[in-house]
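Structure first, sequence second, as always.
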């Protein structure tokens, strides 16, 4: 009887740990409101992985209440920070940490999944220049994701935002 209780307790503890780990990894959702027409956003980790430079990377789905496109955010770990690649079916950019600065950058040819001319069509050059430095203070992954969700809509030219 004592062995049965010990085994049962161990199984329950194991189930709790596995369930907690699974829930933390896949059920966490970040939400907030952007100061743009895209409105409220939600970010949730997804099981499908973004491919970058031939590697599958951790991926989040970013949704806005007033858009129809699905946006994916891939997270690449670096020695000192994390870099983020934001993609939709018609637009993509990166948000990078470089020498203590977090800001937007165009993807290099190896990282791109679409032609530079397609991205250029939608990219607001003034906003791109303004977002080259978003912060110079280290942030957590969640804080970086929230910054991306708030800043990203402004990268799209105003005349194209309704079609996103």
């Amino acid at each position: 009887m004592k062995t049965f209780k010990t085994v049962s307790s161990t199984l329950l503890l194991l189930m709790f740990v596995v369930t907690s780990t699974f829930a933390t990894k896949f059920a966490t959702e970040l939400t907030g409101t952007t100061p743009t027409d895209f409105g409220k956003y939600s970010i949730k980790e997804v099981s499908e992985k973004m491919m970058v430079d031939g590697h599958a990377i951790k991926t989040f789905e970013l949704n806005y209440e007033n858009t129809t496109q699905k946006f994916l955010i891939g997270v690449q770990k670096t020695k000192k920070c994390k870099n983020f690649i934001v993609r939709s079916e018609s637009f993509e950019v990166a948000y990078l940490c470089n020498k203590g600065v977090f800001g937007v950058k165009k993807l290099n040819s190896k990282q791109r999944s679409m032609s530079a001319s397609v991205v250029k069509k939608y990219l607001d050059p003034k906003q791109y220049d303004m977002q080259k430095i978003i912060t110079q203070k280290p942030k957590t992954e969640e804080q970086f994701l929230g910054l991306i969700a708030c800043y990203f809509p402004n990268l799209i030219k105003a005349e194209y935002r309704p079609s996103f």
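Margin note: Residues 30-163 form one domain.
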